[in-house]
């Protein structure tokens, strides 16, 4: 090396270019850097809705409520010591959310726990029990 030519600085790259102070994350495309959303910046999560199934003996039906609003019900009547399920409905605003399926599953579980025998006259419940054989032990006729 001649006296006239300065030695490359220690920060110089292999090509002799000085990269000292350069931001190595720059991609030189001109695109803005990606935005990282930290948990404290994210929108708060919606609380899970409170779902409750209860037996309404006075109304002779089981009711499923979401956040204290009735979303569906399954009507029954007592006959010869058995629970006859006659009709299941979901309010239109709650359709397509599995309300009737959840209602029937929990209703049949409750009836089993109570030691009740069940007769199914409701088409929806009839279809449900053909697909859920775990309730065969409480279904009559």
From TrEMBL:
Region (Disordered), start-end ranges: 1-60
GO molecular function: acyltransferase activity, transferring groups other than amino-acyl groups
Transit peptide recorded as keyword: no
Taxonomy of the source species: Bacteria, Bacillati, Actinomycetota, Actinomycetes, Micrococcales
Domain N-acetyltransferase: 22-141, 54-140
Keywords (A to Z) from UniProt: Transferase
Secretion signal span: none
Classification via CDD domains: NAT_SF
Pfam families: Acetyltransf_CG
Protein's UniProt name: N-acetyltransferase
């Amino acid at each position: 090396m001649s006296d006239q030519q300065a030695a490359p600085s220690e920060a110089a790259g292999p090509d002799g270019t000085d990269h000292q102070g350069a931001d190595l994350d720059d991609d030189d495309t001109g695109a803005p850097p990606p935005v990282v959303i930290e948990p404290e910046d994210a929108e708060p999560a919606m609380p899970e809705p409170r779902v409750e199934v209860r037996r309404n003996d006075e109304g002779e039906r089981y009711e499923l409520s979401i956040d204290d609003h009735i979303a569906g019900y399954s009507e029954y009547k007592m006959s010869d010591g058995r629970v006859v399920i006659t009709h299941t409905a979901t309010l239109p605003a709650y359709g397509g959310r599995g309300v009737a399926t959840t209602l029937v599953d929990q209703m049949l579980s409750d009836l089993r726990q109570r030691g009740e025998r069940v007769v199914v006259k409701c088409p929806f419940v009839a279809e449900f029990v053909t697909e859920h054989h775990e309730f065969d032990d409480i279904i009559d006729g």
